[in-house]
Amino acid sequence: MSKVEAIQYGERKVYAVGAFNRGVAEWLQRLPTVWVEGEVTELRRNPRWQSVFFTLKDPSDGACLGVTIGRGRFDALRLDLTDGERVHVFGRPELFEARGDFRMRALSIERFGLGDHLAALERLKKKLASEGVFERKRPLPLLPRRIGLVTGNDAAAKKDVLATITARFPAARILVAETYVQGPLAANAMIEALGELATAPEVDVIVLSRGGGSFEDLLPFSDERLVRTIASCPVPVVSAVDVIVLSRGGGSFEDLLPFSDERLVRTIASCPVPVVSAVGHEQDNPLCDFAADARASTPTAAARLVVPDATELLGRLDRTRGGLARGARAVLERRRERIVHAHDRLRRAPSLAVERKRARVEHAAGRLRALSPRATLDRGYAIVRAGDAIVRSTSAVSTGEEVDVEVADGRFGARVE
Hints:
By secondary structure, this protein is an alpha/beta fold. Helices cover 38% and strands 23% of the residues. It has helices spanning 17-29, 71-77, 114-130, 156-168, 186-198, 224-231, 262-269, 288-291, 299-306, 310-371, 373-378, and strands spanning 7-9, 12-14, 34-44, 51-57, 64-70, 86-96, 101-111, 147-151, 174-178, 243-248, 275-279, 294-295, 383-386, 389-390, 402-407, 410-415. The strands form 4 sheets. The protein has a 5-stranded mixed beta barrel. A 5-stranded parallel beta sheet has the order 9-8-10-11-12, with helices on both faces. The longest helix has 62 residues, at 310-371. The radius of gyration is 52 Å and the shape is rod-shaped.
């Protein structure tokens, strides 16, 4: 930047307009960044412009301040500002030298007033609900291979989650992604952390190792096929985490606003692995709670959700093992009783078969005896024969003819009269 110098006219120092504006601009650059409060008016955003412009107005006396902010930064804030909203703008004053325009270069913008924030969040909540963003709820894995944790650096929430998971299930593996959880950069940082955890590879590097040896011993490591395999070896891209915990301790309403950012909520809803939201306290309800697959009232409760209690799990395994042993013994006992019963039946089968055959024979004999002519004779009847034929009618014999009469205990002759 060129030096600001005045033109000497006798005893008078005169600054050119450019030099004057440049000097004021340099002085303004030494001022610190500040927060300024006011109402948004004359908001102008064009997709072809690099900056967004609006005027910040003081409602008490009508004082105005021009504000400019980079379009990418403004869009990243996802505020959906409209004229008349009251905001806090963080930035520094500057002077546009070519036109002498004084304005404020904004670095961040936040809504001011709880009512405005709540109204904006309620509108966003209804919008996301109508799109079905809150509908998908996947079950959490019983025994996750590795747990992803998105939390702040040196946060109490991080310590609570790690301590509880380690105490409940010492074998658990945890992949921690420390990031911003507060402020204007928090939403983007958490989105990036979620993406990194969800796509983290199971294996990042493969070590091919062998001890020393002779030249001939090491020749296999120069094999062309091995060399080509190493050169083309793919690194697995299967996700290394089965569940992700998004955690932050308590804070003010403004502190928790990044967890209601629309982009973060959509990222959670589309995350390829289940997400547990553990933000704030029981009474806090950021929008990420509705998009997550499970919601925990505290970070400690989230840790209890994602891993089982090892002591309780071992107790259940012991009870299950005992139940399986008792079941096996019961099955063996039932099978033994069946075998004994079958053995008894096989042992008794021949005698039972003979007895059944004997009963059938006796029944047949009884029927034969009942149908035998002898049985008829025993009841007082007689059989009369004329020659070899049985007399069945009076016309079969004539007077004076000799006949043979058979009764129960013998036979005798007779003459027909």
